[in-house]
Design brief:
Layout (H helix, E strand, L loop, with lengths): L6 E2 L21 H10 L6 E5 L6 H13 L10 H7 L6 E6 L5 H17 L2 E5 L7 H12 L5 E7 L7 H6 L1 E4 L5 H12 L6 H10 L4 H10 L2 H15 L7 H10 L4 H21 L6 H20 L9 H9 L5
The structure holds zinc ion (ZN).
């Protein structure tokens, strides 16, 4: 599996549009609270913003960063300070983001910049997707995470705090963020898709199917063929049904058609599983011991997928994962 390994810093022109936060959905008041705590000296120097992938964390990080440089500290989007963040010429902000693995050279540049910043005064470093650090780069950053230069705030984002190296987890504080609410997300997707937008119910189904991730739901609604949609709906329905041996073959067939990576399958499966579980609880129905054991068995596999999908080794075979999930279960 080859992945692009382009690294972006704030100087990359092609990267700038990603830093605009005007269309960020949700996160209301979160960056304000964060900034208030920081101003009151109540935050540690290393904070990891943790939330599901595709919910808008990168834009949120940009808005949060802008609060530090905005003339009114509101990330107004129209003052000189905000523009310096949007246009990537804010010299007191270091932004590191990559499409692939964050390598040791990136980590070194990050650290050097922090040393330089520290000599000049208090400033900010942002690291997008800290789980994409490879092992060497992680090790390189441990020292700076343990003892950041005085006055420097390091903000990292991640979507799976539990799969970070224990040494990184222990050196940082986790700040959990949540996906925007369903009505907000639905309205956003509807507006984004314009006149071609499907109805609200279809949008909500897509959002639920992808764990309320706006990014992934949008991709699905924009690029998924209607056939693919029918098949994914069917797949989700099959996963939601109480397990029946005769469904197994069809589930396997449907899974084969999706060009998913292992974590995509795991996430889709987890959403279906959670919905199923909630439905069982709500209906007050007593599910069999066999079903409970099966759910436990599935959760264990999902955890293994997430763990293996961690730093620098995100290459689990999706078919093997599917087979593990769907293999006959001896409860
Ligand atoms: Zn501003």
């Amino acid at each position: 599996m080859s992945r692009k390994t382009k690294t972006y810093t704030q100087k990359d022109t092609e990267f700038r549009p990603l830093r605009l936060w005007s269309d960020l959905v949700g996160f209301d008041g979160v960056d304000e609270t964060f900034y208030r705590l920081w101003s009151a000296n109540r935050l540690p120097q290393v904070v990891v913003v943790d939330g599901r992938s595709g919910i808008g964390k990168r834009k949120f990080m940009a808005r949060l960063a802008a609060r530090f440089f905005c003339e009114t500290h509101t990330a107004c989007g129209s003052c000189e300070g905000c523009h310096s963040v949007q246009q990537g010429h804010q010299s007191d902000l270091y932004w590191l983001e990559t499409e692939g693995t964050i390598k040791v050279a990136d980590a070194e540049a990050f650290q050097e910049h922090l040393d330089y910043q520290a000599r000049r005064g208090p400033r900010l470093a942002v690291l997008i997707d800290i789980e994409s650090l490879n092992d060497q780069a992680s090790n390189r950053l441990l020292k700076v995470l343990e003892e950041p230069p005085p006055g420097v705030l390091i903000l990292a984002s991640c979507s799976r705090f539990d799969k970070l190296l224990p040494t990184i987890r222990s050196r940082s504080v986790r700040w959990r963020v949540h996906p925007p609410l369903l009505p907000e997300s639905t309205a956003f997707v509807k507006e984004r898709l314009g006149p071609d937008s499907p109805g609200e119910e279809e949008i909500q189904n897509a959002l639920k199917m992808f764990g309320l991730s706006i990014g992934r739901a949008l991709t699905y609604l924009e690029h998924g063929s209607s056939e693919q949609k029918v098949r994914l709906d069917r797949l989700q329905r099959l996963l939601l049904l109480p397990f029946k041996g005769e469904n197994l073959k069809e589930i396997q067939e449907l899974l084969k058609e999706q060009a998913w990576k292992a974590p995509d399958l795991a996430q889709f499966f987890e959403v279906a599983l959670n919905q199923s579980y909630r439905r069982i609880l709500q209906s007050g129905g007593i599910t069999s011991l066999q079903d409970f054991r099966r759910i436990k068995h599935w959760r264990k596999i999902l955890q293994q997928v997430y763990r293996a999908g961690g730093i620098g080794q995100n290459n689990l075979n999706v078919q093997l994962v599917a087979e593990a999930l769907l293999s006959p279960f001896e409860g």
